[in-house]
Every structure is written in C-alpha cells, then in structure tokens.
Amino acid sequence: MFAPAPCAFQESESRGRRYPEPAHPYRGEFERDRDRIQHARAFRRLENKTQVFTRRYSDHFRNRLTHTLEVAQISRTVARVLGLNEDLTETLALAHDLGHPPFGHAGEQALDRVMRAHGGFFDHNLHALRIVEHFEQRYLEFPGLNLSFEVREGLIKHSRDYDPAQFPGLVEYDLVSRPPLEAQLIDLTDELAYLCADLDDGYEAGLLPLESILPAAPQFDRLYQSLRRRLPSAGSDGLEKLCFSQALRGLLDFLVTGLIEGTRAAMAGFSTSQAVRQHSTRIAGFTPSAESERLALKQFLYRHLYNHPRLLQEKREAEALVERAFHRLLEHPEQLPPGYRNSSETRVRLVCDYLAGMTDGYLRGLGL
Ligand code: MG
C-alpha cells in the first residue's frame, strides 16, 4: 500500500552478525532480531520496571513494558507509512528501553551518581548493548543474542550522539555518522508515546486536573473544546473522562501525523540510506505545528507531573534505595550471584551491572 522509500534501510545492506549464522527459511534477519529481543529475560523484566508511576499508584498505569509496546506500535505505523524498514524499526522500538535500571529515571540518576563517585558512569543505552552482547546467555554458539549490526548500532545511537574520543570502545559503530532513519525515528516515537501516556496516567491519578492541561496544550484544548461544543453536558464527571480520552487519541494522532509529514518532507532529498547516514544532522522530525505542541506538552509535564511533590517523594525513596544497595553490595561482594564473582570486570562495574538488571520488585525484596 505504501511505496518503499529510496532511503529505507535494506536488509541486504546489513553488516550482519558478529558470529555469522545460516539464514532462516522464512524469517528475515531483523525479524529474528526482534524475536530474540522478545524472548530475552531483560525484555520480560521491563514489566516490573517503573516508567513514571510505581505500582503503588495503580496496576493499570504504564510500566516500562507497556510503554515499550506503545512505542513499537507507533513506530511500526510511522515506518510503514513512510516506506521505511518496518522490521528494523519495530526491533529497535522493542529494544530501546532494555538497559533501564529499576525505578525509572530516579534509579538511573542514582546509579550514575554513585558510579561517578567511583570514577565511572551509568548510561542506559550502553548498558542495553552490554545486555544483548554479554548478559543474555541462551545460545550454544555465541555469547549474547548475536544481533545484527544495525540493531546494536541503533541501540546506542537512537537517542543521542557519543563523542568518539570519549568512547573509543564504540569505534565499530562509526560514531561520527548518523544512524539510519529507522533508528532516528525511535527517539521521537518514544517521546510521543510517553508524553501522551503520562498525560493520560497523570490525569487518571488526579495529579493533572483538566483545567491545568487545557491552557498548556493548544491542540489538545482545540480537540477537547470541539467535543464540549458537540456535547454540552461534557462537564459532568463520566463524560469529562470520555471526552478527555477522545481528545487524547486525537492528540496522539495529530503528533504522529506531524512526525510522518515532517519526516516525509525531510526524506525527499535522500536517495539512499547511506546518504542519510552521511548527512550532518539527523533528518527525522515534526511539522512546525506538531513540534510546538510537543514542546508545550513536554514543558507542562516537567513542570506539573515529573516534579510533582507526590512523585518526588517516591523518587527520593528510590534513589536512596539504589544508593544503599550499591554501597552494600560493594562492601559485601559475596552477596553477588555466582556468575558475577568470577568476572574480570571491576567490582564497581559488576555491582552496577547487577543493580541495573534488577526489577523494582527484586530490588525492594532484597531488603537492603
Ligand atoms: Mg522509552
């Protein structure tokens, strides 16, 4: 239905796997990568890792697994409409949060802080690479998942650029070039997914009253007001919620359409995926109206949700728990699982890796 784009990444261009494998009779290489990720332990653990709200709030708010599924669904749609490589895009979306430690950004910041005090750092993209290269052990023939080069590259490059001088270990990923468009999309679909989801969960949790959202998000306001005009009694309780949901669906559609059209316009001048790689900047992006709504939503959520006093309290508890566990394990390496004790890595790195792999529930259950 949608014509393939000339600058789509073709599987035949792939630099392949670290350990060559025979082709599968009916699955493409990126499909196999997707399936390996979905069958990985790190993927299943996403279910018990905080996105924004911990389980204390509600069982039906997003966790990192359901967030990942939403990103995959949006990413597939965008890739298909633009004629990009849908299998590569979906695989990258499913893998994009694999390296997140327990307790969302609070856990990530705490882990980075304690690592920096020991001369290191924590970065979830690099941790995701370590997971798929080393920690997932399920094949006789090779360590890790032996994913295609472009999937490993996209894991690192989808959301930020790394300075080659600072990360000599990543030389094979050619840090000075851009990732393919399929990987560039992920950072943007990730953001659309979480902005809309956090608005939804924040409203449902009672932390974001409708009166505070409407003036902050012009497109959402327009969608909501047009429903109110059609339904004069929309102020009543049950109906307000339905109108909110309806307007939120319209908002996501508006933002996704803005991403598709903005990226389609930018793609027009590129006839190969190689040209996308060699361009001086990333080219995926929004139309101006979608970009301004995206920025408005982001500012609003940072101001009113992510730093809401009720969430800050939980964040502080999570940070303290991660820091306590880090120091405890550093002092008592005998508490690390046997596989970690015989490694050649430094103790600080081992403790960090062990902690980063934990779910919220597992870390809480340790009672540290
Ligand atoms: Mg994400």
Structure commentary:
The protein is mainly α. It has one domain (30-365): Hypothetical protein af1432. The chain is 60% helix and 0% strand. It contains 17 helices and no strands. It has helices at 29-38, 41-45, 64-82, 86-95, 104-117, 124-135, 149-157, 181-204, 210-213, 218-230, 237-267, 273-278, 288-306, 309-331, 338-341, 347-357, 360-365. The radius of gyration is 22 Å and the shape is globular. The N and C termini lie far apart (55 Å). The model has no long low-confidence stretch (mean pLDDT 94). Magnesium ion is lined by residues 67, 71, 96-97, 190.
CATH fold field value: Hypothetical protein af1432
- Structural class comes to mainly alpha
Helical segment count: 17
* Integer tally of domains: 1
Low-confidence stretches: none
Q: How much strand?
A: under 5%
CATH class: Mainly Alpha
**Estimated radius of gyration:** 22 Å
CATH homology superfamily: Hypothetical protein af1432
Molecules bound to protein: magnesium ion
Q: Using DSSP, what is the number of strands?
A: 0
Fraction of residues in helix: 55-70%
Tell me which CATH architecture applies here. Answer: Orthogonal Bundle
Largest sheet: none
Instruction: Provide mean pLDDT, rounded.
Output: 94
- Give the topology string: H per helix, E per strand: HHHHHHHHHHHHHHHHH
CA distance, first residue to last residue: 55 Å
Judging from the principal axes of the Cα atoms, what is the shape? globular
